[in-house]
Amino acid sequence: METEPVYFLLVDDLKENLLSLEAVLRREGLVFLKARSGPEALEALLQHDVALAIVDVQMPEMDGFELAELMRGNERTGRVPIIFLTAGTADRQRRFRGYEAGAVDFLHKPIEPDILRSKAQVFYELYLQRRQIARQRDELKAYAAALEEADRRKDEFLAVLAHELRNPLTPIRYGLDMMRLAPGQQMPAELQTMMDRQLTHLVRLIDDLLDVSRVSRGKIDLRREPITLQAALQGAVEACRPLIEAHHHTLLLEIPETPVPLLADLTRIAQVISNLLNNAAKYTPEGGEIHLRARQEDGQAVINVSDNGVGIPPEMQSRVFDLFIQVEGGIKRSRGGLGIGLALARQLVEMHHGSLTVSSEGENKGSTFEIRLPLDPGQTRTTTESIPAPAVPSTLEILVVDDNISAAETTGQLLAMLGHHVTLSHDGRAAIDQARRLHPDAIILDIGMPGMSGYEVCRQLREDPRFAETILIAQTGWGEDRDREEARDAGFDFHLTKPVSVDDLSHALAGSLPGHSLAG
Ligand code: ADP
Q1: Ligand 1: which of 247, 326, 360 to mutate, most ligand atoms within 8 Å of CB?
Q2: Which residues, in sequence order, are CB contacts of 315 under 8 Å at separation 6+?
Q3: What's the whole-model pTM score?
């Protein structure tokens, strides 16, 4: 729909002529610029883009041809079509001069209204088409520029990704080399801690990457339930403590004692807060101070994470929430990360109808991030139960099924170290036979296996009443919501994404792993 008017320029030294031209041509969407002389006409042409100029030839001072020549000489007005109106019978030479000056047509006075109207109509239509083409050209240019920018950012991102994935692998590689060079020797505790931290970091990068892609496809389902803010804070602090301690920061907590009720996805809110705490630890020089404060205010839970670190320059404060944006990009970046944490955090908070903002007084003045979340007014009874430590299961008979032999063997060795009795299988069909023979207490099943998938194995086992009570755990690289659903439908008790920590595995074997149970 055209909303901008189209301009026609009418030039005649006689006012009545201008009025009668206007009367003939008047139509909706058309605006007339009227000029009584050449200079006035030039003035009007500077103000607006004109679709057509209708110019009287005989005018005192500057005649129509002179005006046309001046128009031709100017980039902005050079292409404006001109219809000359002339009273005399223009001899051939005068007419030629007119065409040279840029006329597209001559009309003789007295004007035939129908002829003038239909000629003007042609220029009106042409102008609209030209304007539309110009608009489309601008849009295409903008798309092309946006694509180019996205492409550049993608290349940069892939480079950063490769770098970031490689970094945490170094200490893990060294750890393994040391074990090989000095077999049987105890690995230094610091190295173990470092390997553990780097592996956690690696898993977190991959989780964030997947989450970002899920959020942008609208594929994240929140599991909102009555929780307390304190439970989320506790989870976040626990997850971040190793990094905070590694940087020798002090963590100061100001958390209200009265439970702050939220209707929220506990894991996601803890993830957001731990993201902010992690950043505070990363972007603060060694030995810094990190404050985690929470309060209740105007029907909202307010959480502040502040640090006394490198700060964020004002012009970057809104941009840090964009995907792949890092204040120190390129080669200068030194603190690790992919530039997706804050984008993800903000989206998760907004999915909870809350907000995430930042303030910083600038470079080296520290930063404060603030999360606001609506309180859950309906919550009278809060569910603050802390997660009970699992009753350490006594020796269990466990069948581990994975077509990846190393994965099966390491899982088996770990479980054996925990005191369980383990049998391995690398094939779904064989696993069913083994299960019937051994009647294990728990079966840990990979999902993607050639021949028979873990889902199918699980389904067949569940059809047999002898396996009604057996703990069935899916241990898989597929972690989308629909994978969890499929696991539940197949009859699994738990769905764990690889790599699975020994704690999670123990909790699952004890039948009590919060957040991963498929029951209900
Ligand atoms: P990443 O930390 O992986 O680069 P984020 O999305 O978490 O990605 O953060 C984006 C950018 O915001 C960071 O690269 C950093 O420049 C800046 N930033 C985030 N948190 C802080 C903080 N607490 N202090 C200073 N800068 C920060």
Answers
A1: 326
A2: none
A3: 0.61
